[in-house]
Write a structure and sequence with these properties.
This protein has about 800 residues and is an alpha+beta fold. The chain has five domains: about 10-60, no CATH class; about 115-290 and about 620-670, no CATH class; about 295-505, no CATH class; about 510-615, no CATH class; about 700-810. About 55% of the residues lie in helices and about 5% in strands. It contains 30 helices and nine strands. It has helices at about 55-60, 65-75, 95-100, 105, 110-130, 140-145, 150-155, 160-185, 235-250, 265-280, 290-305, 310-325, 325-340, 360-365, 370-375, 385-405, 415-430, 435-440, 465-470, 480-500, 510, 525-535, 545-555, 585-595, 605-615, 620-635, 645-660, 670-680, 680-755, 760-810; strands at about 25-30, 35-40, 45, 190-200, 205-215, 220-230, 255-260, 565-570, 580. The protein has a four-stranded mixed sheet with strand order 6-5-4-7. A three-stranded antiparallel sheet has the order 1-2-3, with no helix packed on it. The protein has a two-stranded antiparallel sheet with strand order 8-9. A hairpin with a 7-residue loop joins strand 2 (about 35-40) and strand 3. Helix 9 crosses helix 10. The protein is extended. The protein starts with about 25 loop residues before the first strand and ends in a 13-residue tail after the last helix. The model is unreliable at about 75-110 and about 815-824 (pLDDT under 50). GO terms for molecular function: protein dimerization activity.
């Protein structure tokens, strides 16, 4: 007969804990008969059916509970009123009356000095977040004194240029960086994304971000790690910077899951080099290719440039015409007023690296077409230009915008990538091929379609070009229509060819990841699919864990899922129809993976390990490129002399506000650790200056000490070079002497052979002269080589002496003390 679960006993409320505190101050019965709630820790229902009172004692031993209890004892304003609820059915309705904690009691009391530092920290964070120049904050303290004369904090506030600088670079920046490193150390795996751009300092700035499952936030987060300023940036230099940064911060490189990248060859090489480093320590990278958002942009470029319409040049020309002349802009506005039109927005600038954004530029031109037509008269009077622009607008809006809008946002989208890429390719094919030929093909089956077969293509009337474009055709001549449709067909074929070549529709791993979507929970192939996924991730799951994975997926497939885990809200749109907004997939999975068994242990430990490290996989490089906008905000034209440390500080603070304050400075919780970091920033700054000064002095002394030896080495090298030049000249003379001897011997041989002895004397003279010259040259060459040997010995002695002095400098470092090095 099964054992009955132990019910919550009201008499337990009369007990005290090990410190003598009555448990009724924080203990109450849960919604179920066999559960309890700790109002101190703000827990949900905790099960006590197996162990009874022992379950409560085990909770009392929890570190979080002990810390909260300590805070309760130390802070008299931290009061918790607990009422015994004898009716479990009313537990939820009375919960608001059971636990009352004031906001003031939730934060530790700060001293006056700490409150001033807190205000200064918030102002420094605000200046960093909004891109204020350091100089603009110079009189902020005086301003606050004037604005708040009754505030003692305002009267003490001090945040001048120099103070703001070191608070950012040596206080707040390192604090937020440590916050990230502490969070990253707790996760199982993480993804590194990087990209570079030229900043306002004319330096190449490499930004690195991490994407990982945050234990603190229980969701996928994307956070800024650091920036590196580079000159020449070959792959091995970037690799060394990344690996050295990991070592400095104590980040295990084996936990790096993958590198998100775009497609330049240098990034491919970086991925290869880091993978080689990981294999040395038993790790391995997951490789899924380059950024698919770039592929889509390049696809659009491939199609539009095939037509030779030069739409991009036209858009840039229109923008430039008005951008560089106020008089032209004024004339344009006058014409708009004459036509009773309103110029609501300026013409946009087309960025050639973001080709699909050409659609937004075209739309802005089309909304002002009548004004532009009147302004430019004959040039825009051609209806062909407007028809082309309408088609480009349709192509961007209907075919490409959905994918880019979906995958340029933050969060986890890897589970939807394969299906959306398949839909994109299918949409392109259905725009100019017959639906009978396409059928219901999806995914890699679409790659089998030959889109160049003329008999499978639609006729001109059937091709998808957009309703406005088709209306505009009525204004074209027959020849113009034929040319237009031929160009459109070439555009579609070029787009289809590029997608077919570059989309990863043959990647079965990406295809399998769709199983993580809530709608695929009951898929009949789910068990086989999740096992393939588990096997594919290098070194994540052991063989035993993969064996147990199928059972967990089976339990998950029949799990009771609350709709609120999937649906965020339902609302009525302007058209009166009902729309559904869904939660992010990591929110859904956090709810699923938080389910516990009756004994309190997680129900899906292996599935949790796998899913959390799948959802962090990069679906594109948009996250790191979004940081370029932050760079523009942080590295303004007023900040062209910032050091690398200051740049990292500003970006770390900017990211910290996003992560800890949801983008608002006033929502960032100023902790004691942050206050201490600000207070210690001056000392850290001074310490670094002392080290730099000491290093400079050490290098100067080393240079002075080693200079005589360097001069001697240089002199010996010059002497050696002069001797070797003489030696080479003597070698040339030696060859001349050899020729004289050879000529004398030849003449003597010919005289003896012919019996003519008249030339023997001349031959003898040549021979003798050559031998004498050769002997003299040999003696001189021997002397030179002896001198060279002596010089080399002197050089070796000088180098040994130099090395000895260097070792002495290393053992006895130079210490510099300068009281005027820093002034607060």
């Amino acid at each position: 007969m099964p054992r009955l679960a132990t019910k919550f006993n009201i008499s337990w409320l009369e007990k005290v804990d090990s410190d003598g505190v009555p448990v009724k101050r924080w203990l109450k019965q849960g919604a179920q008969l066999s559960s309890f709630i700790c109002t101190l820790c703000k827990t949900g229902d905790l099960y006590c059916g197996n162990k009874g009172w022992q379950s409560i004692e085990r909770h009392m031993d929890n570190k979080k509970h002990r810390d909260n209890l300590k805070l309760l004892k130390e802070n008299t304003t931290f009061t918790i009123q607990t009422e015994v609820n004898h009716n479990p059915s009313k537990a939820d309705s009375s919960s608001s009356n059971i636990s009352k904690v004031t906001l003031a009691s939730r934060t530790k009391k700060f001293s006056f000095s700490d409150q001033v530092t807190r205000a200064e920290a918030l102002w420094a964070i605000n200046a960093s977040r909004h891109g204020y120049s350091y100089l603009s904050c110079n009189e902020s303290g005086d301003l606050f004194k004037k604005m708040f004369p009754d505030s003692n904090i305002a009267q003490t506030f001090n945040m001048e240029t120099k103070i703001l600088s070191y608070v950012i670079s040596h206080g707040l920046g390192p604090f937020f960086h440590r916050n990230l490193v502490e969070d990253i150390r707790q996760c199982e795996r993480f993804v590194l994304c990087s990209d570079e751009q030229k900043n306002c300092q004319n330096n190449k700035q490499l930004d690195i971000i991490f994407k990982y499952w945050s234990v603190k936030n229980q969701r996928v987060v994307t956070r800024y790690y650091k920036s590196i300023l580079l000159g020449h940036a070959p792959a091995h230099v970037i690799r060394d910077h990344i690996i050295n940064s990991f070592r400095t911060d104590g980040i295990d490189i084996k936990r790096l899951l993958m590198i998100g990248r775009d497609n330049p060859n240098v990034n491919k090489t970086i991925e290869k080099l880091i993978d080689e480093e990981m294999k040395k320590v038993g790790g391995e990278l997951l490789k899924l290719g380059s950024c698919h958002i770039h592929v889509v942009h390049n696809t659009f470029k491939s199609g539009t440039t095939t037509s030779h319409w030069y739409i991009e040049d036209f858009c840039i020309d229109v923008w430039s015409w008005f951008r560089h002349s106020l008089a032209r802009k004024e004339d344009f506005i006058k014409i708009s007023e004459e036509l009773n039109e309103t110029v609501e927005k300026n013409i946009l600038y087309f960025v050639c690296t973001r080709w699909v954004l050409l659609g937004k530029v075209v739309n802005r031109i089309l909304t002002q077409w009548e004004i532009l037509n009147e302004y430019f008269l004959s040039y825009l009077s051609s209806h062909v230009s407007r028809t082309r622009l309408l088609f480009i607008s349709y192509l961007c809006r209907v075919v490409f915008d959905k994918f880019l809008t979906l995958f340029q946002k933050t969060g986890s989208m890897i589970h939807a990538l394969y299906e959306e890429l398949s839909n994109l390719y299918r949409t392109v094919l259905l725009s100019f091929l017959t639906s009978e030929y396409i059928g219901n093909k999806q995914g890699n089956d679409l790659l089998l379609i030959d889109h160049k077969l003329s008999e499978k293509q639609m006729n001109d009337k059937q091709m998808e070009i957009g309703e406005e474009t088709r209306k505009s055709l009525a204004l074209l001549s027959k020849e113009e229509k034929e040319t237009f449709f031929r160009d459109v067909r070439n555009i579609f074929q070029s787009i289809a060819s590029y997608l077919k070549l570059n989309l990863p529709l043959n990647n079965l791993f990406l295809r399998d990841l769709k199983i993580l979507g809530p709608s695929y929970r009951s898929d009949t192939q789910g068990i086989d699919t999740i096992i393939r996924i588990g096997r594919f991730i290098p070194g994540l799951l052991s063989s035993n864990e993969i064996d147990l994975l199928s059972d967990e997926w089976l339990m998950y497939s029949i799990e009771t899922i609350d709709d609120s885990w999937i649906i965020k809200r339902k609302y009525n749109g302007l058209d009166g129809q009902e729309y559904i907004e869904h939660h992010e997939v990591d929110f859904y999975w956090n709810k699923v993976l938080s389910i516990v068994q009756i004994n309190g242990y997680p129900k899906y430990p292996i599935l949790s390990k796998l899913v959390k490290n799948i959802l962090i996989i990069s679906h594109g490089n948009a996250d790191v490129e979004r940081g370029f906008s932050a760079n523009t905000n942080v590295l303004t034209k007023d900040r062209t002399l910032l050091s690398e440390k200051s740049i990292n500080g500003l970006r770390a603070i900017y990211d910290g506000v996003e992560f800890l304050g949801a983008g608002s400075v006033h929502k960032v919780q100023v902790s004691t650790d942050m206050i201490r970091a600000v207070q210690k920033s001056a000392a850290s700054y001074k310490e670094e200056l002392l080290k730099m000064k000491a290093l400079t002095a050490s290098q100067q002394k080393e240079s002075e000490l080693l200079q005589p030896a360097e001069l001697e080495k240089k002199k010996l090298i010059e002497e050696e070079q002069e001797l070797m030049i003489k030696y080479k000249k003597l070698q040339s003379k030696h060859k001349t002497a050899e020729l004289l001897i050879d000529e004398g011997n030849q003449r003597m041989e010919n005289s003896l052979k012919n019996g003519d002895f008249t030339d023997i004397h001349a031959a003898y003279t040549l021979n003798k002269s050559g031998i004498e010259k050769m002997k003299a040259i040999d003696e001189e060459m021997t002397k030179i080589m002896d001198d060279v040997s002596a010089i080399q010995q002197k050089r070796a002695h000088a180098e040994r002496e130099q090395s000895r002095k260097k070792r002495k400098l290393t053992v006895e470092p130079v210490l510099i003390q300068d009281e005027n090095i820093y002034c607060d």
